[in-house]
Amino acid sequence: MNETLDRERIRSNFDRTMQRLRRAAEQSDRDPDSITLVSVSKYVDAQQTRLLVDAGAMDLGEARPQQLWAKSADECLAQCDHRWHLIGHLQRNKIRRTLPLLHLLHSVDSARLLESVNEMCSTLDLRVAGLLQVNISGDSAKHGFNPQELIDTTQQLVASAPNVEITGLMAMAGWGTDPDQAGRQFASVAKLRDQIQDATGLPLPNLSMGMTSDFEQAIAHGATHVRVGSALWQ
Ligand SMILES: *Cc1c(COP(=O)(O)O)cnc(C)c1O
């Protein structure tokens, strides 16, 4: 592949995505700097990921722990500033190796996982920031807590995991939803967050929601982290 062409294409994709983010923020009277673009690099290799970092991406997301490990170990990528977000399911046997690499774990998707992460943090003597993943679409193939479960147990969950700093919720719109339907799902995530905050007094400022096809709707409903992949690699 021709690296100069790749570089230009990736830069223009990144710039266009940032423009979309800024425009969406302005339309909702929000500060664009209050929204983090998590650039999802799962579709490409470390070299292409490096081109994206050169274009200005700071926050990188991977869905699979092994891919995150491989890229973290890449020398070329290690030379430039960036930080890692895990956005997909974390299997328990991969916790030890993954935690030290993370800026934010978006996918705390069960009480059992939270407990294991908390224990490993204690073993490794570190603290990790995480989001509780909520299964908002009711899609049984998706990971995550159901909304009522979170209303009932967040206080207890957070209290039982002192080494994990839970700062908000993460959600995905259901498969095949159009942007308007996705918008309604994001609104319900924001409402759920408000409810949990009111009931528990815990600050939950972060909402990770929105992908390539629906991140403007997510921003309109308060997303602080949008996870965008495809738009960056077309
Ligand atoms: C792949 C992925 C994304 C990015 O999706 P795009 O539609 O490619 O922008 C976002 N979130 C999660 C959890 C993903 O696995």
Content-based structural category: alpha/beta
Element order: H for helix, E for strand: HEHEHHEHEHEHEHEHEH
State the helix count: 10
Largest sheet: 8 strands, parallel
Question: How would you describe the shape?
Answer: globular
The strand line-up of the biggest sheet is 7-6-5-4-3-2-1-8
**How confident overall, as mean pLDDT?**
96
Q: How far is the first residue's CA from the last residue's CA?
A: 15 Å
**Estimated share of beta-strand residues:** 15-25%
* Assembly of the depicted chains: single chain
Number of strands: 8
Short synopsis of the structure:
This protein has 234 residues and is of the alpha/beta class.
Describe this structure in words.
This protein is α/β, with parallel strands linked by helices. Helix 7 packs across helix 8. The chain is globular. Helix 7 links the parallel strand 5 (128-134) and strand 6. The chain is built from 10 helices and 8 strands. It is 47% helix and 18% strand. The model has no long low-confidence stretch (mean pLDDT 96). Strands 7-6-5-4-3-2-1-8 form an 8-stranded parallel sheet. The protein binds pyridoxal-5'-phosphate (PLP). Pyridoxal-5'-phosphate binds at residues 40, 42, 63, 87-88, 172, 211-212, 227-230. Pyridoxal-5'-phosphate (PLP) is lined by residues 40, 42, 63, 87-88, 172, 211-212, 227-230.
Give the key terms:
8-stranded parallel beta sheet; single chain; globular; binds pyridoxal-5'-phosphate; alpha/beta; 234 residues
In terms of topology, how is this protein built?
Blueprint: H1 3-27, E1 36-40, H2 46-54, E2 59-62, H3 65-72, H4 75-78, E3 83-86, H5 95-98, E4 102-108, H6 111-124, E5 128-134, H7 147-159, E6 164-171, H8 179-200, E7 206-208, H9 215-220, E8 225-228, H10 230-233
Parallel strand pairs: 1-2, 1-8, 2-3, 3-4, 4-5, 5-6, 6-7
This protein binds pyridoxal-5'-phosphate (PLP).
